[in-house]
Predict the structure.
Amino acid sequence: NGAGKSTLLQLATGQLRPSQGEVRVLGHTVWNNPALNRHLGLCPEQDAFYEWMTGWDFLYTCARLGGFARGEARDRADRALEQVQMTEHAHRPVRGYSKGMRQRTKLAQALVHDPLVLFLDEPLTGTDPLARRDLMDIILRLAAAGKSVLVSSHVLHEVQALTPHIILLNHGRLVAQGHVRQLRDLIDKHPHRIVLVCSNYRTLAARLVTWEDVEGLKILPKEGRVLVETRTPDAFYGRLPALSLEDGLALREVYSEDDNLEAVFKYLVNP
């Protein structure tokens, strides 16, 4: 929170004028460029509905404001609601919508004019697990259909579930960008923590402590696990299959919490 995500999206959609520098989308300057709006869709974080309207009325009005004739606006409202799986609730007043339904309707208004680029500001906020999964599936389908989708979120595990291509912001500054594995490589100066689960965990620990690239090792007897620290995780992982074939050292599970985006962010922000 407070990293500047919503401000960045407002700049990218022409709602704010940059105090310095320039913002370009699809090769064009965004500020004071109404012609570009037809190619951009924004799902804002905050609601801005006419509560007495039905979902369909809201979508139809958005299409009309976008310059479409009545017949075309009706068709586009229908299609957008179908895309977000809201056809069943299209003629209910927005005031009676759940949080998930409101989020779907906001997403539909961003789609009603069939933009090339979508900016989604915290689209999963406040939704229940089922609605969150449905919305994530919709976003993934839009990307698969050829849309460029930029999702803003402070919930890192949700971002990682949507895409491996990440931009990390902290207090308005760019911390890192790239594929999540590339970002993980940025913190290799920190030991990579790997957990191994094995019935004969003490023998496993005795074996691992002889490896030169193991910088630290901790036995977790209650869980039957061994926590290893290494700066060369790829080489370490490469030797594990052979190790697991040794008598009594069958590995039941191997995992590392340092491979997730949350760990990357913590390391980069708090070196």
User: Anything to note?
Assistant: The mean pLDDT is 89.
